[in-house]
């Protein structure tokens, strides 16, 4: 997959979740549930694809990967993880899709979060 098709696949998945909608604060794409952001998606100045998600259950595991780091602006302390991929990188799209779902469940109201299955 190219970075563009990966971006599109991740965005499409995020928008498929209950009451999810897209916004563009700060010039980047975010997907929100109600008024809360659960995923940041952007292309960096160098062309890399960046994604940030809240991972209360798997942040430690995510940070074992070379492509992941705690999200800046103090968000990393709350379980947010940022991932960065360059063209040609092997992107674990299925894992990122699950992380988007986990992030959704972490920020969505309980009734909406319960509608999104877990991969347990």
TrEMBL record:
The UniProt entry, under InterPro entries, shows: YjbR-like_sf, YjbR/MT2646/Rv2570-like
Q: Entry's Pfam families?
A: YjbR
Domain of life, per UniProt, equals: Bacteria
Q: What Gene Ontology molecular-function terms does this entry list?
A: DNA binding
> What are the UniProt keywords, alphabetically?
DNA-binding
Gene3D superfamilies xref list = 3.90.1150.30
Q: Which residues form the signal peptide?
A: none
Q: Does the keyword DNA-binding apply?
A: yes
Instruction: Name the coiled-coil region(s).
Output: none
Query: What name does UniProt use for this protein?
Result: MmcQ/YjbR family DNA-binding protein
Q: What is the lineage of its organism?
A: Bacteria, Pseudomonadati, Pseudomonadota, Alphaproteobacteria, Kordiimonadales
């Amino acid at each position: 997959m190219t970075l563009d098709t990966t971006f599109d696949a991740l965005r499409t998945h995020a928008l498929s979740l209950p009451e999810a909608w897209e916004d563009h604060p700060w010039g980047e794409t975010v997907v929100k549930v109600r008024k809360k952001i659960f995923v940041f998606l952007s292309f960096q100045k160098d062309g890399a694809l960046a994604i940030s998600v809240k991972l209360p259950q798997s942040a430690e595991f995510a940070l074992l990967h070379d492509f992941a780091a705690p999200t800046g602006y103090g968000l990393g302390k709350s379980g947010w993880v940022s991932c960065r991929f360059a063209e040609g990188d092997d992107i674990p799209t299925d894992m990122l899709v699950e992380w988007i779902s986990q992030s959704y469940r972490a920020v969505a109201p309980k009734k909406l979060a319960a509608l999104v299955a877990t991969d347990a």
